[in-house]
Amino acid sequence: MSRLRGSLSSILNNEKKDSTYYRIAHYLAENAYRLKRISVQDISNNCYVSKSTVSRFCRDIGYEDYYELNHDMYQLVETRYNKFQRYNQDSFEERQASYYKDLLSGIEYARKYIRQEDVEYLASMLFRYWNIGVLGSLHSHAVSEYFQHDLGLFSKVISAPLLPENQQDFIRCSDRDTLIIVVSCRGNYFNQLLGKIKVTEGCCPCCVLITDNPKMKNSNPYEKVIYIPCSENYAQQPRNIGYFLNQVVLEYAYRDQKNKENEDDALLEIYRKLRPGEPAN
After folding, report:
1. What pLDDT is recorded for position 178?
2. What's the confidence (pLDDT) of residue 82?
């Protein structure tokens, strides 16, 4: 389902509005609630494209055919209704109370389950690697972009490609000197990407998964799986993973400052040895 949402969002955000794929993606997104009653012919007629173009669109975003895409879309719609059902009370005050209750519960979850060793591990890996990519889809990608932006404030440059094909290119070009951080609530997004590409044997990157799925612990191809539990509701997912990444940034900032102070002290000591008796500016 995340594959479908990510693909449609990418097309709507990046394709020109008069392009064939934009028209198809827009029609699917706008009519998702009644897609079970829409045929390939309906899409062809409403988007002014051939049925073969609809089939090619499905294949290009990772589906065997329209039937498989249709099945994912139906599940997506059902998931959407379930996700927001808990906030469907009649009054604004009740909806607000339910949302904030879940939000505060998520913060308590984060404080309880985010482990110091996990934060320190990922912060240390940021210093160890220079070629770093953080990959996610939809809400997880939003968390990834915040992480990228915050690290950039400390001159730490990482990649956070959005489009699936750009993520695949990043993985394809990676090697043993590359760190790939995967942000995925369910934990299976990266496996979908790996199914489409081949990483050269002996040049595999270091992969770290951050997820709230306990079943992903000790799974391949990850060197480490960091588990951040949260409830599957609108208020918590994937904010709890965002809380973890915020703490990684704080740890990185602290270590970066200490490293600079140590470098300044070392330079000062060298200056004193070269020019004894002279005051250092």
Report:
1. 93
2. 61
Condensed to tens digits (0 to 9), the pLDDT of residues 235-249 reads 666 788 899 999 999
Strand ranges of the sheet holding 224-227, from the earlier edge strand across to the other edge:
131-135, 178-183, 206-211, 224-227
Report cis status (omega within 30 of 0) of the bond before 221.
yes
Please name which of 168, 154, 160, 167 lies closest in space to residue 251, comparing C-alpha atoms. Answer: 154
166 CB-contact burial (10 Å; exposed 0-12 / middle 13-18 / buried 19+) = middle
Using alpha carbons, select from 108, 110, 135 the residue that is nearest to residue 248.
110
Residue 68: CA count within 13 A, CB half-sphere: 12
CA angle at 161 for the pair 160 and 162, rounded to the nearest 5°? 115
> What is the rounded CA–CA span in Å between residue 192 and residue 246?
27
Residue with tokens 């498989």: 68
Q: Distance between CA atoms of 126 and 131, rounded to whole angstroms?
A: 9
> Amino acid identity, residue 232?
E
Provide the percentage of residues in the chain whose pLDDT is more than 90. 31
Per-residue pLDDT reduced to its tens digit, 95-123: 889 888 888 888 888 888 899 999 999 99
Q: In the prediction, which pLDDT does 193 show?
A: 63
End-to-end CA, the chain:
60
Residue 64 has phi, psi (to 5 degrees) of -65, -40
